[in-house]
Every structure is written in C-alpha cells, then in structure tokens.
Amino acid sequence: MSNEIKSSSFEYIVIGAGTAGALMANRLSADKQCRVLLIEAGRKDDYHWIHIPVGYLYCIGNPRTDWLYTTEPDVGLNGRTLRYPRGKTLGGCSSINGMIYMRGQARDYDQWAALTGDDEWRWQNVLPAFKQHEDYYLGADELHGAGGEWRVEKQRLRWDILDAFALAAQEAGIPHSSDFNRGSNEGVGYFQVNQNDGWRWNTAKAFLRPTCYGRPNFEMWVNAHMTKLIVETQIDGSQRCTGVQVWDGHEMVTVQATQEVVLCGGSIGSPQVLQLSGIGPADLLLQHGIPVLADLPGVGANLQDHLQIRAVFKINGAPTLNVLASSMLGKARIGLEYLTKRSGPMSMAPSQLGAFTRSSPAHEHPNLEFHVQPLSLDAFGEPLHSFPAFTASVCNLNPTSRGTVRIKSNRYQDAPAIAPNYLSTDEDRKVAADSLRVTRRIAAQPALAKYQPEEWKPGTQYQSDEELARLAGDIATTIFHPVGTTKMGADSDPMAVLDSRLRVRDGRGGVIAGLRVVDAGAMPTITSGNTNSPTLMMAEKAAGWVRADARE
Q1: Span 192-217, mean pLDDT?
Q2: How many C-beta atoms surround the C-beta of residue 477 within 10 A?
Q3: CA distances, 491 to each of 123, 296, 302 (Å)
Q4: Chain-centre distance of CA 75, in angstroms?
C-alpha cells in the first residue's frame, strides 16, 4: 500500500488505522461495491519490536511508534507531568499496549445503556459483538467465540513469585479466576493475552492483512496527517461531513466521502480533529480563530483514565526478571528460549497476573484491578532494579475524576493539552489510600512469607489516608486507558458529543450527517479493566450500523 492517490472520492473514509480503525476498514471494505480509504498518520508496523511481546519497552517513548504526548502539570499528582503513550503506527495502541484481553464487567455496559437510553449497549447485546471477531484458544462456548480475527491465548510462562501472590490474594479473600471475561471479573489469576504463538497480535495483522490488502476497493495511506474534516451546510440548513483534508507528506489533499467519514483517532486524536474542524466548545474554538460549526462543549471533556499506584516489594528466594536479565548470560538464555520455544520473558505481557477486588466492603462490585509483575523499575523505559523484587500495581477501576483534551493552537501539528485531573475528588483519594492497604494485606499473607517481602516503595512509614493519598500523587502513573473525550449520551445530556449510534451531534438537536466517532473516546464511562478489547467491540457494532444506514 502506498500513498499514491488512486481516487479523490470514496464511499467511506476511515481516519486512524488503530484498534477501531483497522476493524472498521475491514468490515466496510468487505462490500466490493464500496471504495474505502484508510488514513494513518504513523508508519507501517514493520518495526520488529512491535511484534515481540516484550518489545513494548522499546515502542513506548519511541517516535517511530508513539505520539510522545505528555500531560499538563497535575495538581492531583503534586504538580508532576506524565508521559502519555499513544500508538502511532498501523495497529495504533494495539501495537504498543500490554496485550491483555479484558472486556470489563457486565454492569459497565448496562450503565452505558442507561446513560444513552439505548439497550443496544446492554451486556447481553454487546456480548455477540465481542464473540464475532474473537478466536478463543479454548474454543467457542456461550461466552466466547472461535474462528474470528482477534486471537486470545493463555500466557506462555509462569513465575513462582506470581503463583505465591495469587495464593496470598486468595488467603486475603479474593477467589481464584481462570477467566476474567465472563461478566464479573472478580478474582485472581493469569491474564489472557492477544498473542498468536508467542507473537504480539495487533489489529493490523488481525484485520488489515492479508484481507484488506488483497481487496481492489481498499486503499490505505500511511504517514498521512488528517488536518480537518470538511463539513458543508445543506440547502435545508442541516450539516453534512463530505470529506477530509489530509497532508500526505508532500501537499494538502482534499478527499471526498460520499457515504461516511469514520473518525477513529482515539481519545486524544479524535477530540483534537473535531476541535480543529470547528466542532467543540465555542469559546475554545474562537480563542484559536476557528469558525464554529457546532458548539459542543463535551468535545475534549470527560477524560477518564486508570491511575496505577505501583508498590514494589523486595524479596528473597525466588527468581525475578531483575536477576535473570542482570547479566549477558542471563539475557542470552532469555533470547534463546524465545527463539527456540517462543516462550519465557520475551513473550511476557507487561503484566502477567491480575486481580480484581474491592477497596472496601462498602463497594458492591470490584473496583480495583491489580497488575502484578515479577520485576521492578522506576518507570517504563528505565533500567530494572539490581535486587530481586515484584511490583503490584493497583488502579481504581471507576474513577470519578474528569479531565480534558483541548487544542493549544489551530495547527494540526501541535499536540493538544492533556489534563487528566487525577485524584481530584475525595472519593478517588480515599480509594487510592484504601487500595494501598489492600496491597499490603495481600503481601502480609502466609503464602508470601517464605519470600520475605519488604515494601521498598512506597514504604510502610505512610499510614494515614492523607499520607497515602499524597503518596499516590507522588508515585502513581497512567496505565494507558484514556477514554470518554467524545462521549455518547442521551439527547437530554448537554455534554454528549455522540448519539447512541456514535453519530456526531450538531449542537442544535440533530446530527452532522456522514460523521461518526468510533474509538474509546465514545465511552461515557470507563470500563472496569483494560480498554482495548471494548474498543474493538464498539467498532464491531458501529460497522453494523454504518452498513445498515447505507442500505436504508
């Protein structure tokens, strides 16, 4: 696929070849009568570290694969800024993420249905969309699909220290779980991952090749930046998105869409494109000299993310990656195991063991997720510590804090201001404090005693709610799950950017014809777990609606 322009008009234009965009392009181009253009700002996914599971260490913070965003200084993080990785390559975030297959809880989707007034989002109605593209390693059953494009496998390694943590969690009252994806993810167990025979399985491999590449009605441009949407006012006063303006690396190109433009730029990229196009908060647009096409205050609002608090415990008597990778001989053994068996540390997802539980008995449903790792470091991209250790990262699954994504200028080249506003509510600060107590309770159980766990970070000197909440601000970081910045909602919700079928509202009680946003930004509330697979489910449903609307 090259950027040589074959046509200036398509039935469908899909912006962004990431998680949602790859699936949308696949489903829409399955109709041979429809020409589909897929536009991606990043490069092809031909960087070898994308496909080796441990390669996320070399993709995050790498301009070849990451947008290299940073957040604004955050009061809740005691003034700190964070790196905010987002995938910039074919496959998007599915090319640099943790590969964890996680749907969330049934209650998440029932809440979406209530917020949008549309039962299509209830658990029993989204489950078929999850199953439609799933290829589950144990085969199909009432809750899993087989034969689809999205491969789900068990991990190809285990660690004594993680097995001991799982037993300790059970001693602390968390039940064992062999499958977190059956509607209630409460429990402790190893995560299932999006891998295929020890290789990362991203959405480019799943949905674009070889299928789309062999279709004469499919065209893809890479290294092509969407600069703005083209929205025209019709004779009857309504608005319609008729195409896009793209910088193809050499010149500005205008491309027409006769059916729909589907914006799949992600929770950061999509609100930026909408705002640059004149769709967003009027005061922000006018501040940057952008004519207002639709005054939608919700564009770039409602940002939600999972903030992880990383507790590090020094141990004795069990191998961890800190020790195994500390010498050239150890690294050679790790490389040889992956080369010959496609297993071992190089096949690792960033987190192998998971646990879902409650921060306190007052919570009706699990509101914490643990990502447990047989390693420790100061931050991703930093070297491993020299001592044996494990890390137990815990995040609040249902944060009440809300942030924003707002353009800083009218130039598409300039990154937007990302302000997550972490820990900005009393509830979130209380959950943060309680979550560290849950971590300590697990670490104190008999199953871990033989490894003599010692809390190295943050340190047991911090005990009160106030101390622990401030501590969370000092050490917590994103776990890379931004959602909600173009949320769907009911007609009565003035902050809803999209209707329940992901069509963009016009700010006057109708929608802008021919324009949808299909990505994690459309979530009204964040799912109770990792967000990649729920985004695929949303794209599956949206593709069906787009095709149905075309038939009508």
Answers
A1: 96
A2: 19
A3: 22, 13, 17
A4: 24
The CA distance from 508 to 285, in Å, is 17
How many angstroms separate the CA atoms of 468 and 432, rounded? Answer: 7
Nearest-angstrom CA–CA distance, 332 and 236? 69
Examine the pLDDT at 302 and tell me if it is beyond 90. Answer: yes
Q: At what angle do helices 532-551 and 19-29 cross, to 10 degrees?
A: 30
> Do 528 and 185 touch, CB atoms closer than 8 A?
yes
Position 360 pLDDT exceeds 90: yes
In the block, residue with structure tokens 């020790």: 323
If 0-12 CB within 10 Å is exposed, 13-18 middle and 19+ buried, where does residue 58 land?
A: middle
The H or E element spanning position 229 is strand 225-233
Per-residue tokens: 279: 């769709």
Please answer whether residues 52 and 28 qualify as being in contact, where contact means their C-beta atoms are separated by less than 8 angstroms. no
Backbone angles phi, psi at 117, to 5 degrees: 75, 25
Residues 6+ apart with CB under 8 A from 93: 18, 19, 85, 86, 87, 266, 480, 532
What pLDDT does 6 receive?
A: 53
Q: Could you tell me which residues come within 8 angstroms of residue 427 by beta carbon, excluding any fewer than 6 positions away?
A: 400
The CA distance from 136 to 65, in Å, is 28
User: 216 — phi, psi (to 5°)?
Assistant: -65, -20
Q: What angle do CA 217, 221, 225 make, to 5 degrees?
A: 140
d(CA 166, CA 337): 25
Which of 197, 193, 202 shows the shortest CA–CA distance to 50? Answer: 202
Three-state SS string over 486-550 comes to: CCECCCCCCCCCECCCCEEECCCCCEEEEEEECCHHHCCCCCCCCCHHHHHHHHHHHHHHHHHHH
Is 1's pLDDT higher than 50? no
Q: Which residues pair with 412 in a beta bridge?
A: none
Alpha carbons 172 and 263: distance in angstroms, whole number: 45
- Read off φ and ψ for residue 176, nearest 5 degrees: -70, 145
Please list the residues that pair with 15 across neighbouring strands: 39, 263
pLDDT at residue 42 greater than cutoff 70: yes
Whole-number Cα distances in Å, 195 to 58, 151, 420, 507: 18, 6, 30, 42
What's the half-sphere exposure (Cβ side, CA atoms, 13 Å) at 471?
23
| Closest among 267, 276, 332 to 87, alpha carbons compared | 267
**Which amino acid belongs to residue 381?**
G
Place of tokens 């570290």: 49
The number of CA neighbours under 13 Å toward the Cβ of 169 is 27
Taking Cα atoms as reference points, which of 114, 92, 14, 232 lies closest to residue 488?
Answer: 114
Paired tokens of 427: 């509830």
Span 116-123, average pLDDT: 98
Query: Catalytic residue positions?
Result: 481
Structure tokens at 210: 């070889």
